[in-house]
């Protein structure tokens, strides 16, 4: 399976594409020049307002981003101090208004994330992609959000129920 | 996305509420088996076992594949289905993110044009 493409549902506009076994990408056009869309991706206060939509069911407790080559970022999630977990990594490429690349270092086999901004006629095409070291790592990850502890807890419950059938 | 997962978990839990179905899953965790093997192991009719397998299939806990005259059951949903679901959930995540991002983009545009007027 070298390439499988799934268009976004009508009206949503996001297009997800399995670029290769190791890479998945999502694209979307925004009705604004690149400087504005880039600002929303590179300013931590603005980024924190959209990266974790309510439907994910978790809360972003803090977000720090030092957007320059070699700079780091850290996003902390959870409802209280005990249940906090974090995503973090390093920016490896930063081209203002056009491209950012960063690592995901919170776990083994983390992806390299790339976002590009291409402006045309006052609109901006955003392409975000994640490249994983292996196919299995990509499939296990689902953009990181699947690793949320609550979901592991739900899975644990399910497995416990399954195990209880044996006596 | 949360809604989708909830429904999925509910279906899984109700599929797991039956002792025979839990037994079938344990058996399939060891090795794949045909419906008639399973019917024999659990001492029930072929029709009865087919119903249980149907419930497990619906919950995405079991996949079946017919080769010749034998229908083989194994744990888990099919690779294609899994990939389609996975991509769909990924898209839902990004749709949600991007619709929040739209709001911020609009806000920044408004701010920029009001700065220009000053």
Key terms for this structure?
heterodimer; A: 167 residues; alpha+beta; Alpha-D-Glucose-1,6-Bisphosphate, Chain A, domain 4; 23% helix; 38% strand; B: 118 residues; Arc Repressor Mutant, subunit A
Quick structural summary:
With 167 residues, chain A is α+β, with helices and mostly antiparallel strands. Chain A has helices at 34-42, 44-50, 135-141, 149-164; strands spanning 4-6, 15-20, 23-30, 60-65, 72-77, 85-95, 99-103, 112-120, 123-131. In chain A, helix 1 (34-42) packs across helix 2 (44-50).
Question: Helix and strand layout, with pairings?
Answer:
The complex is a heterodimer of chains A (167) and B (118).
Chain A: E1 4-6, E2 15-20, E3 23-30, H1 34-42, H2 44-50, E4 60-65, E5 72-77, E6 85-95, E7 99-103, E8 112-120, E9 123-131, H3 135-141, H4 149-164
Antiparallel strand pairs in A: 1-2, 2-3, 3-9, 4-5, 5-6, 6-7, 7-8, 8-9
Helix pairs in contact in A: 1-2
Chain B: H1 2-15, H2 19-30, E1 33-34, H3 35-41, H4 46-58, E2 62-67, E3 70-75, H5 79-117
Antiparallel strand pairs in B: 1-3, 2-3
Helix pairs in contact in B: 3-4
Your description of this structure?
The complex is a heterodimer of chains A (167) and B (118). Chain A has four helices and nine strands, in the order βββααββββββαα. Chain A has 167 residues and is an alpha+beta fold. Chain A has one domain: 2-Layer Sandwich (Alpha-D-Glucose-1,6-Bisphosphate, Chain A, domain 4). The longest helix of chain A has 16 residues, at 149-164. Chain B has two domains: 2-75, Orthogonal Bundle (Arc Repressor Mutant, subunit A), CATH 1.10.10; 78-118. In chain B, 72% of the residues lie in helices and 12% in strands. Chain B has five helices and three strands. Chain B has a three-stranded antiparallel sheet. The longest helix of chain B is centred in the C-terminal third of the chain and has 39 residues, at 79-117. Chain B starts with a helix and ends with a helix. The A-B interface holds A 1, 4, 6, 8-9, 12-16, 18, 24, 26, 28, 30-32, 36-37, 39-40, 46, 49-51, 53-57, 128, 139, 142-143, 145, 151, 154, 158, 161-162, 164-166 and B 1-2, 5, 9, 12-13, 16, 19, 22-23, 25-26, 83-84, 86-106, 108-109, 112.
């Amino acid at each position: 399976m070298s390439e499988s493409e799934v268009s976004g549902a009508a009206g949503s506009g996001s297009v997800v594409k399995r670029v290769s076994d190791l890479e998945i990408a999502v694209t979307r056009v925004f009705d604004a020049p690149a400087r504005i869309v880039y600002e929303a991706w590179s300013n931590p206060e603005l980024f924190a307002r959209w990266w974790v939509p309510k439907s994910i069911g978790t809360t972003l407790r803090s977000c720090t981003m030092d957007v320059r080559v070699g700079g780091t970022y850290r996003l902390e999630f959870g409802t209280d101090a005990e249940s906090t977990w974090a995503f973090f990594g390093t920016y490896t490429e930063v081209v203002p208004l056009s491209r950012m690349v960063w690592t995901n270092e919170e776990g083994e086999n983390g992806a390299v994330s790339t976002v590009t901004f291409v402006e045309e006629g006052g609109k901006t095409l955003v392409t975000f992609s994640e490249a994983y070291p292996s196919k299995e790592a990509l499939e296990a990850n689902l953009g990181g959000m699947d690793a949320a502890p609550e979901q592991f807890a739900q899975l644990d419950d399910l497995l416990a129920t399954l195990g209880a059938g044996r006596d | 996305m949360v809604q989708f997962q909830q429904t999925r978990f509910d279906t899984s839990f109700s599929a797991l509420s039956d002792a025979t179905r839990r037994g079938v899953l344990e058996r399939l965790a060891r090795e794949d088996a045909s419906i008639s093997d399973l019917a024999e192991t659990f001492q029930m009719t072929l029709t009865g076992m087919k119903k249980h397998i149907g419930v497990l299939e619906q919950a995405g806990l079991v996949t079946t594949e017919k080769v010749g005259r034998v229908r083989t059951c194994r744990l888990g949903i099919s690779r294609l289905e899994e990939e389609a679901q996975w991509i769909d959930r990924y898209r839902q995540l990004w749709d949600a993110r991007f619709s929040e991002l739209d709001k911020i983009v609009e806000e920044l545009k408004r701010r920029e044009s009001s700065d220009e007027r000053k």
